[in-house]
Design a protein that fits this description.
single chain, 4 helices, five-stranded parallel sheet, Hypothetical Protein Ychn, Chain: A, alpha/beta
Length: 111
């Protein structure tokens, strides 16, 4: 099973850590791929290297969770892309990436 979490607020960004961990720990599902897409600058801040959740993000990246940020959202408010946790991918647009993932049969979860 493939799943994408759609994150647009700082509150959802914080909740996303536990939600992804719960999904990965659920032994009743075979999770092939998990992606977390951020489409708002305020939410993207948890992906910065010095955020209080950066270690949790790194652990999930090590479990092959894909973290993606919208190139448009990273500019508003300005987020320094070079300050993001290593392994976070910038995509051309959040809506475009969601469309691509859903076309590839990812289950969609909006937080």
């Amino acid at each position: 099973m493939k799943t994408v979490f759609h994150v647009s607020t700082p509150e959802a960004a914080e909740r996303s850590i536990a939600k992804v961990q719960n999904l990965l720990a659920d032994e009743t599902l075979e999770s092939d791929t998990v992606a977390v897409l951020f489409d708002a600058g305020e939410a993207i801040a948890i992906l910065e290297r010095d955020s209080n959740l950066a270690d949790d993000v790194r652990k999930l990246l090590d479990w092959t969770v894909e973290y993606k940020v919208c190139s448009n959202a990273i500019q508003n408010p300005a987020v320094d892309e070079s300050n993001l946790v290593a392994g976070v991918e910038t995509v051309s647009s959040g809506v475009g990436e969601l469309t691509r993932l859903q076309a590839r049969e990812y289950a969609y979860i909006r937080l």
